[in-house]
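Summary of Year 1 activities. Much of the first year was spent building the evaluation harness for sequence design. The harness presents a backbone, in tokenized form, and records the residue chosen at every position. We chose the following record to illustrate the format because it has been used consistently in internal testing since the harness was completed.
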């Protein structure tokens, strides 16, 4: 009975399909050795006779290959020669195979590679050869597999042996005659560079050779790679996980807080913690822009320019080559004097993509280019663009291009041409005005003597001795720009802390004095001749102590008379002494700033965050100078250089820490509540000193005269949380200022106008129908 059941089971398994048999073997490989051997013999028979049926679809043979590939880890000894046989099949027949059968075989090889059944050096070169096939789906699949596989190989550490062999093969594939295969190989290298797998100098220089290829697609792709901003892409890719974390944190508002959603939130928090632990373990090496890793940029530029001059490719490819040459020349300060006159043919108003050419021309200029080489080009731009017959956009474009060139190489500009260009600031068009003024402002800083005295302005008068340096003359840097602003900000913070300490001490003194006065009143110590009351139980009577009158009033009167006599003589002296004291204070401040500046530059390590902070301080100082005008620069910088948002001063390491930020905000909220209790309003950190003093005065007035509330007198001075609305502000404005706003014409949208026209037509149609009916009735009569 048992033998019959076993035979029935075997016969049933023989009738199974390949997918069912595959699942059964994966669960228990030892029980199905016979069935597997039968399928393997079937494969060998079909493989031997494959030459006669290579171009056919071969569905059964393809299913058998997929079956054996998925079970290669279950029977490694039996399938030892299976991978090499499939690889040889693909190498010999990949061009003539049916696309469905070929795709199935490639997927089988990928499955085996993912299970580490095949060495990557054996299979990946074959995949690169398959890029020559005319099958887009296959090429996309192979591309993604190659990139992910190489990334997985180098995940824990760089596998130099495998990388070297694969790189050598890919370098050969870039020179392949098939444009599709060469382009795909280049795309693999670009993708691996972006994913920081192969970001070494050797890879970059191989991609640089692709710019000199005969294949236009390859040249375009290589130029596009060198011109694209990879540092931005790296930054964005690094912060994708942070954005995901923010998405994980957010809850769905307005729904029930079920158990399922609470569990989901817990899972999300665990996932975030896991990502944070991963980030802490990662050590990122510094990234360099690809264009900086080229071995010999001068040689590359010469070869690329000679190719450009003899090129008859599409206009888009030539534009990309011009932009790459300009980027290399400007980045590495190279000499390519024939490049500037070559661009004259493209510097015309009607030229296609003329803005990109002007930008490339400005980028190719640097301080080491002789001014004589650039003067004809600047004159060409001025003659073609900045003329009265040109369009206003073209004039603005030309002025902006000349400004950018002068910013990099100011010796190009002559006084006569500069004056002609500056005169365009009185042009009717706004864009042209702004462009001309920006050129004028540039030379106010660089060389104000080249401008007329009326055009120099305040900045020009301050920099009146500013003279342009001679060609190739460099002024050595004496320090880091903007450190003095950082010192002044630190001094301002220290001053603020000291003022707070003094205020606290004053409050303690006042409280102590009030307590002393209370004690004196209780003890009955009065020196002005008041009556002291004593309990009658002790038998004492009320005693009146007559205090001796002080002679202070008489002495004050005599002193006042003497002062009135000497005021006229000492007034002039006091002004002089005040001026001297002020000058001495300014000198002391300058000395202190210089001392601290030297200390900072010697002791402090300037990282990326400090440089960004210096940039912000520079921008803020320039804005404050522009706003204040008449005040001195020192006063502006020291008084107003504290950041408006106090959270900007927090160390960026702690900004992302939720616990630290929560404690920080709670302490801030407590400070604001105390201020509200003390003054009757919230003192925001962004509030300026004028409004702050105003509010303090109002708070004092409320305390002193509660009946005479300032709310009734100065309604427009009261500031609520968030300020007054526009409608509330209109109440306190004169009627003549409000009238134009009330009479403002309401501009109707296109849809409302259309609807009103439709309504009017409908009414006209009704009226016309009525008229027609009336006429018919008259005729009938």
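For this record, the design step produced the sequence shown next.
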């Amino acid at each position: 009975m048992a033998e019959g059941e076993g035979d029935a089971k075997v016969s049933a398994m023989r009738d199974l399909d390949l997918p069912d048999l595959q699942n059964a073997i994966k669960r228990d490989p030892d029980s199905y050795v016979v069935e597997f051997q039968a399928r393997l013999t079937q494969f060998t028979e079909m493989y031997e006779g494959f030459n006669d049926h290579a171009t056919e679809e071969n569905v059964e043979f393809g299913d058998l290959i997929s079956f054996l590939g998925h079970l290669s880890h279950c029977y490694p000894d039996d399938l030892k020669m299976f991978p090499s046989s499939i690889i040889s099949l693909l190498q010999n027949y990949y061009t003539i195979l049916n696309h469905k059968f070929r795709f199935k075989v490639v997927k089988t090889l990928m499955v085996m590679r993912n299970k580490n059944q095949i060495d990557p050096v054996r299979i990946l070169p074959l995949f690169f050869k398959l890029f020559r096939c005319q099958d887009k789906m296959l090429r996309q699949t192979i591309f993604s597999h190659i990139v992910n596989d190489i990334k997985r190989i180098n995940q824990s550490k760089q596998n130099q042996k495998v990388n070297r062999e694969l790189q050598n093969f890919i370098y050969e594939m870039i020179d392949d005659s098939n444009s599709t295969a060469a382009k795909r190989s280049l795309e693999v290298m670009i993708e691996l560079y972006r994913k920081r797998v192969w970001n070494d100098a050797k890879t970059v220089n191989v991609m640089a050779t692709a710019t000199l290829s005969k294949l236009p697609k390859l040249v375009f792709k290589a130029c596009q790679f060198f011109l694209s901003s990879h540092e931005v892409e790296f930054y964005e890719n690094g912060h994708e996980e942070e954005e995901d974390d923010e998405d994980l944190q957010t809850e769905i508002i307005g729904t029930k807080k079920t158990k399922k959603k609470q569990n989901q939130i817990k899972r999300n928090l665990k996932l975030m913690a896991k990502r944070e632990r991963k980030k802490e373990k990662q050590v990122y090496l510094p990234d360099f822009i690809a264009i900086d890793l080229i071995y010999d940029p001068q040689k590359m530029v010469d070869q690329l320019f000679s190719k450009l001059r003899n090129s008859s490719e599409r206009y888009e490819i030539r534009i990309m080559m011009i932009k790459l040459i300009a980027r290399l020349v400007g980045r590495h300060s190279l000499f390519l004097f024939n490049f500037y006159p070559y661009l004259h043919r493209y510097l015309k108003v009607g030229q296609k993509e003329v803005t990109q050419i002007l930008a490339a021309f400005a980028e190719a200029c640097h301080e080491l280019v002789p001014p004589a080489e650039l003067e004809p080009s600047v004159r060409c731009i001025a003659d073609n663009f900045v003329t009265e017959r040109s369009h206003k956009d073209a004039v603005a474009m030309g002025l902006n291009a000349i400004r950018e060139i002068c910013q990099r190489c100011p010796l190009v500009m002559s006084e006569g041409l500069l004056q002609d260009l500056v005169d365009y600031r009185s042009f009717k068009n706004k864009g042209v005005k702004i462009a001309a003024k920006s050129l004028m402002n540039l030379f106010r800083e660089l060389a104000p003597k080249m401008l007329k005295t009326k055009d120099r302005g305040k900045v020009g008068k301050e920099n009146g001795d500013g003279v342009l340096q001679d060609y190739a003359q460099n002024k050595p840097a004496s320090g880091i720009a903007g450190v003095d602003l950082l010192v002044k900000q630190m001094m301002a913070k220290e001053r603020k802390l000291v003022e707070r300490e003094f205020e606290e001490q004053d409050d303690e003194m006042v409280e102590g004095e009030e307590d002393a006065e209370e004690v004196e009143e209780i003890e009955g110590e009065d020196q002005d001749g008041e009556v002291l009351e004593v309990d009658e139980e002790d038998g004492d009577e009320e005693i009146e102590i007559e205090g001796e009158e002080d002679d202070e009033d008489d002495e004050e009167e005599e002193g006042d008379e003497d002062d009135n006599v000497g005021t006229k003589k000492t007034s002039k002296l006091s002004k002089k002494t005040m001026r001297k004291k002020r000058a001495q204070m300014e000198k002391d401040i300058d000395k202190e700033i210089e001392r601290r500046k030297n200390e900072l530059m010697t002791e402090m390590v300037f990282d990326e965050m400090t440089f960004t902070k210096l940039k912000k301080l520079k921008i803020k100082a320039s804005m404050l100078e522009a706003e204040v005008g008449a005040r001195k620069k020192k006063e502006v910088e020291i008084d107003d250089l504290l950041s408006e948002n106090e959270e900007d001063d927090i160390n960026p390491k702690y900004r992302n820490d939720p616990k630290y930020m929560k404690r920080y905000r709670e302490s801030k909220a407590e400070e604001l509540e105390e201020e509200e209790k003390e003054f009757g309003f919230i003192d925001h950190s962004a509030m300026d000193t004028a409004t702050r003093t105003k509010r303090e005065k109002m708070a004092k007035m409320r305390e002193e005269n509660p009946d005479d509330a300032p709310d009734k007198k100065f309604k427009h001075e009261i500031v609520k949380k968030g300020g007054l609305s526009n409608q509330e502000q209109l109440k306190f404005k004169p009627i003549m200022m409000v009238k134009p706003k009330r009479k403002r014409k309401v501009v109707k949208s296109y849809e409302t106008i259309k609807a009103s026209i439709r309504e009017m037509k409908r009414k006209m149609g009704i009226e016309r129908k009525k008229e027609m009916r009336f006429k018919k009735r008259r005729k009938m009569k």
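The radius of gyration is 43 Å. Quantitative recovery figures across the full test set are reported in Table 2.
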